[in-house]
UniProtKB/TrEMBL annotation:
<dbReference type="InterPro" id="IPR036908">
    <property type="entry name" value="RlpA-like_sf"/>
</dbReference>
<dbReference type="InterPro" id="IPR057309">
    <property type="entry name" value="PcsB_CC"/>
</dbReference>
<dbReference type="Pfam" id="PF24568">
    <property type="entry name" value="CC_PcsB"/>
</dbReference>
<dbReference type="InterPro" id="IPR051933">
    <property type="entry name" value="Resuscitation_pf_RpfB"/>
</dbReference>
<feature type="coiled-coil region">
    <location>
        <begin position="43"/>
        <end position="105"/>
    </location>
</feature>
<feature type="coiled-coil region">
    <location>
        <begin position="188"/>
        <end position="215"/>
    </location>
</feature>
<feature type="signal peptide">
    <location>
        <begin position="1"/>
        <end position="26"/>
    </location>
</feature>
<dbReference type="Pfam" id="PF06725">
    <property type="entry name" value="3D"/>
</dbReference>
<dbReference type="InterPro" id="IPR010611">
    <property type="entry name" value="3D_dom"/>
</dbReference>
<dbReference type="GO" id="GO:0019867">
    <property type="term" value="C:outer membrane"/>
</dbReference>
<protein>
    <submittedName>
        <fullName>Cell wall-binding protein YocH</fullName>
    </submittedName>
</protein>
<feature type="domain" description="Peptidoglycan hydrolase PcsB coiled-coil">
    <location>
        <begin position="92"/>
        <end position="163"/>
    </location>
</feature>
<feature type="domain" description="3D">
    <location>
        <begin position="331"/>
        <end position="391"/>
    </location>
</feature>
<keyword id="KW-0175">Coiled coil</keyword>
<dbReference type="GO" id="GO:0009254">
    <property type="term" value="P:peptidoglycan turnover"/>
</dbReference>
<keyword id="KW-0732">Signal</keyword>
<dbReference type="GO" id="GO:0004553">
    <property type="term" value="F:hydrolase activity, hydrolyzing O-glycosyl compounds"/>
</dbReference>
Length: 392
């Protein structure tokens, strides 16, 4: 079996930001350790800022939603107020018509009374009455007419008083409407300002995310390129299975859609080639012995005794990958790039296989930091000495 290609890829693409967030690539000088560390620090600072901007956008969305709810409530109150004003106006118009009709009727009666002398009419009623009952009946009729006129006058005065009250009500409603309109205008101004701020923040966030993703994509493609090349060129079942295990383990850690598509395509290709080679091998085997398809290699590129600590958290690693803990696949560990190159595949006894994709300020020399999913797991692991094998 030919020796497999070394999986580890010394990545030379790091994020270098100036004050205007222009992106450049670090010079591929292995001796520039300080420059590499500075670029990694800036990379992580950018990731932190992106998370902070994302949180700020979330707060703005909540605030805008609250303002929109307030606007909706105010608009509903304005509609109700306008409906009340419309009803009051109709009531006032109806009152005016009724007052005009009653004033016309009263005027007609008054004119009729002025045209005829009431005293003369009374003498006429006495002289022409057939009997005392007829006289009382005529006098009662006159009294009723006078009472009706008094009621008409009273009703007119009541309507006038009601009209005054309705006028006061409508004036109050108009004031309320103006106040609500002012509130609406102020809220609209706030919403527009918040939207402008949100759009500005989103634009900045998207710009920075695009910049980050371009670096992440380059790093991830470089990280898997050797393994994909092995799948494309190798006819060794053992090498293909080792490459398949590596790609399957690293797939959940990838962020770039392009890198993910490359790995998924290579995984499919590796499975197809393995099936084809195993079928061909089985058909030509004379003794029927099983193939060595363990996908493992007894040789290691190097072996170290290291002081191991544990860490957890979110964000991205120095290579722009998502940190993971997968005991049955590939986990994430932080190393000193001067000892173990970033991108190397390692086997940590008592921990499992991992990708050296992260660094740390305290991780210098023969020290390694193992990623765990919870703080409790970190405390449980503590600090211990482990054997680390760099796997080809």
């Amino acid at each position: 079996m030919s020796k497999k290609k070394v999986f580890s890829v010394v990545l030379v693409l790091f994020l270098c930001l100036n004050n205007t967030y222009n992106i450049v690539f670090a010079e591929p000088n292995s001796s520039s350790n300080v420059s590499i560390d500075e670029n990694v620090t800036k990379y992580k600072e950018l990731d932190k800022k992106a998370l902070e901007l994302d949180a700020e956008v979330g707060k703005l969305n909540i605030e805008i939603e609250e303002i929109n709810n307030k606007l909706e409530k105010n608009n509903s109150e304005i509609k109700n107020t306008e409906a009340e004003i419309e009803n009051i106006n109709k009531k006032i118009e109806d009152s005016k018509v009724e007052i005009e009709e009653r004033e016309a009727l009263m005027s007609q009666r008054l004119r009729s009374m002025y045209k005829s002398n009431i005293t003369t009419d009374m003498m006429y009623y006495i002289l022409t009455s057939e009997n005392i009952f007829d006289l009382f009946s005529r006098i009662e009729a006159v009294s009723k007419l006078i009472s009706v006129d008094k009621n008409i006058i009273s009703d007119i005065n009541d309507k006038k008083d009601s009209l005054v009250k309705d006028s006061e009500i409508i004036e109050d409603k108009q004031k309320e409407l103006k106040t609500l309109s002012a509130t609406i205008e102020n809220d609209l101004s706030i919403v527009n300002q918040k939207k402008e701020e949100q759009e500005s923040l989103l634009a900045e966030l998207n710009e920075e995310k695009d910049a980050v993703m371009s670096i992440i994509e380059a790093n991830e493609v470089n990280l898997v390129s050797n393994t994909i090349s092995t799948v494309d060129s190798s006819d060794s079942i053992s090498q293909l299975k080792d490459a398949l295990n590596t790609l399957t383990g690293i797939l959940p850690q990838l962020n770039s859609n392009y890198a993910i598509s490359l790995v998924e395509e290579s995984i499919s290709n590796a499975k197809y080639k393995i099936d084809s080679l195993e079928s061909a091998k089985a058909s030509t085997s004379e003794d029927g012995s099983s193939l060595d398809v363990s996908g493992s290699n007894s040789e290691y590129l190097s072996t170290y005794s290291m002081s191991a600590t544990a860490y957890t958290g979110h964000g991205l690693t120095a290579l722009g990958l998502k940190p993971v803990r997968n005991p049955n696949g590939l986990s994430t560990v932080a190393v000193d790039p001067n000892v173990i190159p970033l991108g190397s595949k390692v086997f940590v006894e008592g921990y499992g296989y991992a990708i050296a994709s992260d660094t740390g300020g305290a991780i210098k020399g023969n020290k390694i930091d193992l990623y765990f999913n919870t703080v409790a797991d970190c405390y449980s692991f503590g600090r211990r000495t482990v054997t680390v094998h760099v796997v080809p």
